Amino acid sequence: MTVCVRVWNLPTMDSGLTGTSPIVTDPLRPYTGHSSNKPLHFSLMRKIEQQMNNAISNNQNWQSANTAVTFDEESNVSTVFLHGNKIAEVGDTFIRLFDGGWQSNTTKSRLNAILQEHGDVGDRVFQKAFDWFVSMNTAQGITTVPFFSSMKLANL
């Protein structure tokens, strides 16, 4: 038996949902295919995270609700704050991750939005059994290491 399900195409940062695509699948097996070049763990980014990434990309100072970006012209580095705590530094060739003292879902979401936009495909922060880890794309493939505050990833 097959069932036709509706799957939304993923929106880009400057457009809304673009329509639907019919996918035929076996209801006893989960659908695992995708047409995006992003990994399967890709999720929709929150509006505040899109605005945060725009500020980082455009080298601008920005603040909304609990999130702020400051840009230092001397070092050419954007620093991201969540509730006044530094959670990331984004430079031309690196991303430095911090937990700001709080390994919360919101911190993790902001860091993943930064990695999705400014990191390499496959870079992400995730939690397993209450511990944080970072998966990063390396010459040997995707490598997973324990998260530690101030860890630096290259974003060449």
Using brief descriptors, characterize the structure shown.
156 residues; alpha+beta; 2 domains; 6-stranded antiparallel sheet; 3-stranded antiparallel sheet; 11 strands; 16% helix; disordered N terminus
What would you say about this model in short?
With 156 residues, the protein is an alpha+beta fold. The chain is built from 2 helices and 11 strands; from the N terminus they run ββαβββββαββββ. The termini are far apart.
Description:
The structure is a single chain. This protein has 156 residues and is α+β, with helices and mostly antiparallel strands. The protein has 2 domains: 1-36, no CATH class; 47-154, no CATH class. 16% of the residues lie in helices and 38% in strands. It is built from 2 helices and 11 strands. It has helices at residues 47-57, 105-118, and strands at residues 3-8, 20-25, 62-64, 67-72, 77-82, 85-90, 94-97, 124-128, 131-138, 141-146, 151-154. It has a 6-stranded antiparallel beta sheet with strand order 3-4-5-6-7-11, covered by helices on one side. It has a 3-stranded antiparallel beta sheet with strand order 8-9-10. Helix 1 crosses helix 2. The chain is globular and about 35 Å long.
